[in-house]
Write a structure and sequence with these properties.
Chains A, B: This is Fad/fmn-containing dehydrogenase. 2 copies of one chain form a homodimer. By secondary structure, the first copy, chain A, is α+β, with helices and mostly antiparallel strands. Chain A contains 16 helices and 18 strands. In chain A, the strands form 4 sheets. A 7-stranded antiparallel β-sheet of chain A has the order 15-12-14-13-17-18-16, sandwiched between helices. The first copy, chain A, has a 5-stranded antiparallel β-sheet with strand order 5-6-10-8-9, with helices on both faces. In chain A, helix 8 runs antiparallel to helix 13. Chain A starts with a helix and ends in a 12-residue tail after the last helix.
């Protein structure tokens, strides 16, 4: 599309100087995220204030021009790709940490601050913000809010939606508004805060967030358990989750993930096994060993091959080496990883892993299963190495999603829907649920200006 | 109003036998909750199935007749009073616990089960559901969902909104739908689950809920700390909340609340002090004393008068006697308690208590402050003893709410808005936020059939 000249004039007034960029490099960068989708916008703007975002949304609405928000561009679902062109609002300059209030266990931030920069600013106060996605150094808090990001720590401390008190945003109507509170309890009207979290910039653009903070545990200890097969490991996960000490992380790797890590990091002491659990417990220096003992007791059982218990922080690191090696190992196999993010009830994990492996064999595509077992949230990653495998990989996805739904699970635990899973949404949600979601979209964004083609 | 004959015919078909009741006793009972509001419905129906609720909503919508859901009738905000008459749907017969799945840490229930019956069913499995309102023996899970109920335990374990995975419901359109999942992570479309929680039956009628369960701690210990004044106690609350051991409860009583408890329960060993904190920590038998020590360290500081640390469960009970005595003591003072439920950031508690006491003096109405200090959620209860004091009490409320908003707080932490706080909602929420809430209401309930006159 070509932007109307009067819109471009308005945008240049709202975003003077280099706050508006229509150069080739800027458009090329804003066309992509970490998905395989790409589409160039017509112009990129860099908001610095809430008022600018209000003017921006009004201008785009007036001209019915698509407007897509963008943070670090690390989405794996195409959520930040401007499918229909138009304007991309890059929030990375709106990156202030406005206030850290330890007494109230909250921080007020702008959406463009990276997750890692926030964590570093919180550390001296003895706090952290729970979401810990693998992309923390690059992804922004705004992006975390957009897709309801998680990470290993979500098991004990919750994902993004569980760790936000309030938001400031601009709806697709162009109206700025405040949702939620500065308090940890709130029964004052409808919960618009959590409605916006995970809505991927389709309802409103978030310009500020009041985040719930968690005190940093003084002591952290890891355990590593290997099992004969996936079923034994999954039973251990269920045992661990049924006892009172909730681990801070409970990560799973299947045999193929282990083999991959071993092949590509021969020095990392990656064990051979049917399945592996990496477990982290935390607490105070006095109590953490009791937590470790409780989880170790639950990890023991039929099919256990070996249980390693870290005595200190350096041993923690050694036990996690297999998991760390896996990211690099996948990249070494292929540049065309199809990154899935399904979630099932914990008790259905054995069926998910067995079913995914059967589908991979049927479609002849390499596949690894690993991830956040305590939440039933596995990354079922296809690793196609050539065009044929890529084609077969995408052909397999509908069967994988059908399996997940049949197991009582859903399409995404922490990456979101974006464009890549949008066509599968009717598998997970009934027509009446989708119709309500479309009505909610229309209530916030009556002209369909915000991030068209995503989620609903 | 008089119901159209054709609607009554439809209702009699949907609700045969005693599932429909238009007798005087039934209408009188359904007219009231624990607020001072009352209005008789024209008929009461007792749904037993989701399909009946779909038919019910469709019939009421067709005739544009108001429909108000009701559980145990313990709302203090008038949320379950059918202000405009019409139909009351009493869900108390829909009280099955459908499934308890310890491996998946979830329970599937119908909305009419009482909070207490649910907790009793969960206990043998080693789990509880976090919300623990004082009305647990009588209030239903559906009511807890409707007002986002909390209780002391919400401090560590969250309120209702933090402890629900998914819902089944019927929107005001008459369409049944499913929101959320059976999993603890979900980034699949808009979060309709948390939107319904706290919406007080104005968007949809909930017919089923998948609840997130928490393992029961094996050991619980209490502490009781008295302080010279409210400011010292509030500073202790901030210190406690800034260290890593989050208490399971952190309750506050002001000097007047203590005096009231002492006067009415002379045997309960209620201390004399400017303010009191009751603190509960939990963990395993091996770790609970470390948690107790950590909290005790944080409780000590300027203004501390005495710190009692329970050594066992019976001593726990003794320390909580003051708090237990308070409910009865308030009832002994007056039958006309004005039960408030405001919430401020924890650091603003001293200003809230001082400000509320100043307003009570100005308006010459007895007032006690107590409640969930760790969440900044205080019950600021007016205790008027005669018609003049009642009048002055209600006249004081707008000033109290203005104070709360000025302190960065909001109108309700766990009771909701209902009818009693509806007129004050514009104090807490800007016009643009209210407009969005009204749009959401219209999306779910286009003809305004569900619980008219409440919330927005």
């Amino acid at each position: 599309m070509t932007l109307p000249a009067s819109l471009l004039d308005s945008l240049r007034t709202i975003f003077p100087g280099d706050a508006l960029d229509s150069g080739d490099d800027a458009l090329r960068l804003a066309a992509r995220d970490h998905s395989r989708h790409a589409h160039r916008p017509d112009v990129v703007v860099h908001p610095a204030t809430h008022a600018q975002v209000e003017s921006l949304v009004r201008a785009c609405r007036e001209h019915r021009v698509p407007l897509t928000a963008r943070g670090g561009g690390t989405s794996s679902t195409g959520a930040s790709v401007p499918l229909a062109g138009g304007v991309v609002a890059n929030f990375q300059r709106m990156d202030r940490i406005v206030r850290i209030a330890p007494d109230d266990r909250l921080a007020v931030v702008e959406p463009g601050v990276t997750n890692e920069a926030l964590q570093q600013a919180l550390a001296p106060h003895g706090f952290f913000w729970a979401p810990d996605p693998g992309s923390a150094p690059w992804c922004t808090v705004g992006g975390n809010l957009a897709c309801n990001a998680g990470g290993p720590r979500a098991l004990k401390y919750g994902a993004t939606r569980d760790n936000v008190l309030g938001l400031r945003a601009v709806a697709g109507t162009g109206e700025g508004f405040i949702a939620g509170t500065q308090t940890t309890k709130d029964s004052t009207g409808y919960d618009l805060t959590r409605l916006l979290i995970g809505s991927e910039g389709t309802l409103a653009l978030i310009t500020g967030a009041t985040l719930k903070l968690t005190p940093r545990p003084a002591a952290v200890r890891s355990l590593r358990a290997t099992y004969r097969d996936t079923a034994s490991a999954a039973q251990a996960v269920a045992r661990i989750m049924a006892q009172p000490v909730t681990p801070a992380a409970l990560e799973f790797m299947d045999a193929l993930a282990l083999k991959l890590a071993r092949d590509h990091a021969p020095d990392a002491d990656v064990p051979e096994a049917g399945a592996l659990l990496l477990i982290e417990v935390d607490g105070t220096p006095e109590t953490v060993r009791f937590a470790q003992d409780a989880v170790a007791r639950a990890a023991r059982g039929d099919g256990l091959l070996a249980l390693d218990v870290a005595a200190d922080a350096s041993e923690n690191t050694a036990l996690w080496a297999a998991r760390k090696a896996l990211s690099f190992a996948q990249r070494a196999v292929t540049e065309h990883k199809i990154n899935e993010d399904v979630v099932v009830p914990v008790s259905r994990l054995p069926e998910l892993v067995a079913g995914a492996q059967a589908l991979a064999a049927k479609h002849a595509v390499p596949l690894v299963c690993f991830g956040h077992a305590g939440n039933g949230n596995l990354h079922v990653n296809l690793l196609p190495r050539d065009v044929d495998e890529i084609e077969r990989g995408y052909a397999m996805l509908p069967e994988l999603f059908a399996l997940v739904i049949a197991l009582g699970g859903t399409l995404s635990g922490e990456h979101g829907i974006g464009v890549v899973k949008r066509e599968y949404l009717p598998l997970a949600l009934g027509e009446s649920t989708l119709a309500l979601m479309r009505s909610v979209k229309a209530a916030f964004d009556p002209d369909g200006v915000l991030n068209p083609g995503k989620v609903v």
